[in-house]
Amino acid sequence: MANPVKRLHYFDQQFLREQDFIDEQNYHIQRQRDHNRLLHTPGIAQGLEIRDPPSGSTSVTVNPGIAYDHQGREIVLGNNQGINLESFADNQSVYLAITYTEEETDPSSQAGITANTRWTEAPAIETLLPNASGQFPEDPEEKIILAKVNRNGNQIATIDRTERRGAGVVGGDFVTNNLAVGGNLRVSGDLEVQGDIIASDKDNGKIQTTGMIRGASLPPNLIRNSYMNILDGDKPAGYNVGGKVTLEAAHPFTKGFEGPYLGTKPANAADSVDDATEENPYWFGRFNQGARIKRGGLANGWSTFPDGKILKITGDNSEQHTMIFFPFESQGNFFTKKVHLKAWLKISSGTQVGFGEVAGWSNGQPNNGLIITKEQSDNAPDGWYRVDGVISTSEITRLGGQSFSMGITGDETDGSFEVYLALPYLANLDYDTWLPSVSDMLSRNGLTVHPSSGNVGIGTTDPTEKLEVARGNVRIGGNLNVTGTITGKLSNGIVGNTQLANNSVTNAKIANNSINKSKFDTPTRNQFDAAIPNTGGSITGNLTVNSSNGVRAIQGTALGGTGDLYAGYFSATNTGNQQGFGVFGQVIGDGNGNKYGLFGNVIGGTTGSRYGVYGKASGGVTQYGGFFNAVNSNNGTAYGVWSSVEGNENGNKYGLYGRAIGGTTGSRYGVYGYANANGTNSKYGVRGYAGGNEGTKYAVYGSTGGSGTNYAGYFSGDVRVTGTLTKGGGSFLIDHPLEPFNKTLRHNFVESPEDLCLYRGKVKLNAEGSATVKMPDYFAALTKEEEATVNLTPIGKKPFLVSYQWSLDYTEFELFGQANAEVAYLVLANRDDPAIHQFRKPVEEEKGNGNFEQGKLLYPEAYSYPKEMGVDYLAEELVAAEECQLNVVG
């Protein structure tokens, strides 16, 4: 019975000796060597090549690589190693071999110790002379042969690599996705290849086999279709040939996961292209996006195969012309100057394939066509070359029927060929579809196209205009854009509220200036006559307009024009010291409805700013752009300023926007909040609230710019944060204790991925070498006490061992060490209270989905990126842009 495999088992307080570590290493080393020995035969696994040196050389170079010996030891050469052979006798052949060696290195630096601390594994490249029979003199399974160097005099003549042995596979099955064989390949069982076998013989280009080679190949994007039969030999409909050519429908493949082209959706068809599989293909319908060339049967199917096939073409060049004529699906012939061809092509034998129009062929090649060689096919994935090109055609060629063709040149020896064509697609490049000829369209179904003038008539066979519609209505579903002049009239009837020229029609453009005051109805004209004399457009004196029926006492409307519009414009010029009011609004009444001293409302438009009320003040001592005062005479709520912005659009909205700019001295307050009262109620100088279902909310957001010291937020007094405080850095900053008038002192925060609590202190051990440290009574409730750690440091000149042990309830821990010694301790424990569970954040998070924008940086300049890469840059730039707009308005 073989010795059982043993490995070390570790446990707390185990005392380990030298042999334990040796056994640990030997376990892993032997496992690896057994793996190599039992699975691989000795030899070179990779590299270790000896290339031919320059002429006249006396040395060779061994390249890096790896080999296995008969014990499974890995022999690794990490760098090029030169071998000089000048010391050998002239004309003496020399074997080069590599073997495994190891030696002790790295002497110990510990005082009084002479042992080495490392084993160094090093390959040894040996030079050996052939034995009396001219063969390798050692065991080739222990010393791996690299090459035999033959010499002419003392110079290198040739490198004989025939005795190099590659590391093989010990008997058994072998499966690989990619196999490259540099030497001989011997297979004692079956060899099955799921892919192409590409091989050639240097002497005659033929591969001879005594058995059967079975293989299967899937061209790119051509997937097996379970709807189709394995092989059908019938000739596809519509294709014709010239010369000795045989057409077959072979290989059941279709493009992607397309299903059969039937009029009814199959029961197993997928609902979308993305969901399609081989078992559940996507159904494109009967024609697959319209009638085109039969695309190997994929557009309309062949007459006998509605599901489509690959076209197999075989034959030879024994007759005069070898051509395959394509059926081009068109309704009547049409002229074209160029066509677009797409297809998959595989040339198994033969030299080249050409595509072009029939009239353009000469000497077996298309004059203006497309040539694909066998070399291009062989270099393509799985041998399938993607044909995609534009082919010029004669202007007198009518593409229709079988005017497009394919020619094949066979092998140079016997002229034979075997070619596969899949998914051919041919189209008029200008339209990418079939196009009826002009002669077929001259008059059809009430539509006439005049062949000489190009006029189009609907309902008439003799159109006199570019478009003439007779005896019928014209309906336009979208916009009508006319760059010329429309001559005509609107028939008698009612004109509704539909826009006409979008407010651009003036009096001068309607009925030749015939609109005047007399055209208004009498009641409307009388109201104007009563307020404004007919002889002028202004009123001298007061104008009083009364209303008692709930309508607007006075209403002004200004429309049109390109300049500023004022529905009402009021100006008061004050030359004395009395007050002046541009507009004075007063609402009096005992009713309970809302009252507005001044109400401004702006609506409409998509660009530009809107000001419900705009106030501006200049001159004097103190200026108020707006002054608002609310006196609260009851216990209700009073607002000095109540500002609201509503709407469902996506622009920025400011409930209150404050600006303070200009000047060089004095403070500037964009918004200044002050709250003072004698009661016990709360006071808020400034209070912010932000809500909503999505996006990031900022109750208060501050940012700074410019030179000098910048504080996005400055608080004089205590600051309390009930949630989580997130920062890029942190510190305390105080007056320096030693020089408080001249310096400041800063200490930075200690950071950790955990929410650590820290407790430290010193304790003296008793005569038995122990002491007890009690923790605060809240310790277990506040922390993950079972994960708490204690760091101990002996105090004194002579170090000693010290340890600790927690009590069962983690309310205290006991220290053990040297009697009467002093020990410093540091307890670290992660928080575990309810508040931290509510506010704890992940240590690492992917950006996006509300956690900042992916591709942006919190601190771009710290990572040597421009500030434009910052997460807040666009928002701050938008504010700056609006600030510029306000500067223009102001």
SSE layout and pairing:
Blueprint: H1 18-39, E1 43-47, E2 59-62, E3 65-68, E4 74-77, E5 81-84, E6 94-107, E7 116-128, E8 144-152, E9 155-160, E10 192-193, E11 214-215, E12 222-224, E13 231-232, E14 240-242, E15 245-250, E16 253-255, E17 310-316, E18 323-328, E19 334-335, E20 338-349, E21 352-357, E22 361-362, E23 365-366, E24 370-373, H2 374-379, E25 385-392, E26 398-399, E27 401-409, E28 416-428, H3 438-441, E29 443-444, E30 447-449, E31 456-458, E32 467-469, H4 522-531, E33 731-735, E34 744-748, E35 756-764, E36 770-774, H5 779-782, E37 789-795, E38 803-806, E39 812-816, E40 822-830, H6 834-839, H7 873-889
Parallel strand pairs: 10-11, 31-32
Antiparallel strand pairs: 1-3, 2-5, 3-4, 6-7, 6-8, 8-9, 12-16, 13-15, 14-18, 15-17, 17-28, 18-27, 19-26, 20-25, 20-28, 21-24, 21-27, 22-23, 29-30, 30-31, 33-34, 35-40, 36-39, 37-40, 38-39
Q: What distinguishing features does this structure have?
A:
mainly beta, about 900 residues, Jelly Rolls, Triple-stranded beta-helix
Radius of gyration equals 48 Å
Measured as a percent range, the helix fraction is: under 10%
What is the global morphology? Answer: flat
CATH class wording of the domain at 221-436: Mainly Beta
Total number of strands: 40
What is the CATH fold-level name of the domain at 221-436?
Jelly Rolls
Mean of all residue-level pLDDT scores = 73
N-to-C terminal Cα separation, in Å? 100 Å
- Tell me the strand order in the biggest sheet: 13-15-17-28-20-25
DSSP summary: helix tally = 7
For the sheet with most strands, the description reads:
6 strands, antiparallel
The fraction of residues in strands falls at: 15-25%
CATH architecture annotation name of the domain at 221-436: Sandwich
Class inferred from helices and paired strands: mainly beta
